[in-house]
Task: structure prediction
Amino acid sequence: MEEPLILNQIVCARVPTAVGEFQLCLYTNNRDDKEHLALIRGDVFGRENVPVRIHSECFTGDVLGSRRCDCGEQLHHAMEYIALEDCGVIVYLRQEGRGIGLMEKLRAYNLQDQGLDTVDANLALGHPEDQREYSMAAAILKDLGVRSVRLLTNNPDKIANLESHGIHVVERIPLIPTIYPDNAAYLMTKIKRMNHLLDVEVLQFVHSESNRNGKH
Result:
């Protein structure tokens, strides 16, 4: 039986950004050795309908701006959206590569360049297609006193997972990706195999154009 989660908020600090000022809070816990984060705008304690993004770490997208995925763009769009609100939270989970880590994600990238999609690449390396989980995110939101959320996501599984951990999701706010030849196949896989809520027709057009130009 898994031990009860013990979460500790260690330190918070003011972080001014290009889109506005936030507080960044660092959490430790008794289940992994990772430092999960909450980027907070305004006073969220006891608030309903708080705009929230649950974001899993993506070094290539978040830091390098890689166009193989839409992760970095989702993070920055979420920051921009929340900066326009009086309050909001981005929970930043250290779950690189849908939970497989950066080394294995880079290996999966090489398999994708050989023709596998993002799901089959993970499976070929012996990993589940997605081994992320969101109990940590739910615990952080509860620690911050958030009572219900408007979730910035295209992933219905994330909504169901948060609800199962006691976080009431009152609304889904879509995050519309920019489609590039390098991420069209990835986004199409998200729709077809991971049930993400994106515009199929636009993606099919860009995907067909990228295939015509020799992209996988």
In short: The chain has one domain: 7-95+132-210. The mean pLDDT is 90.
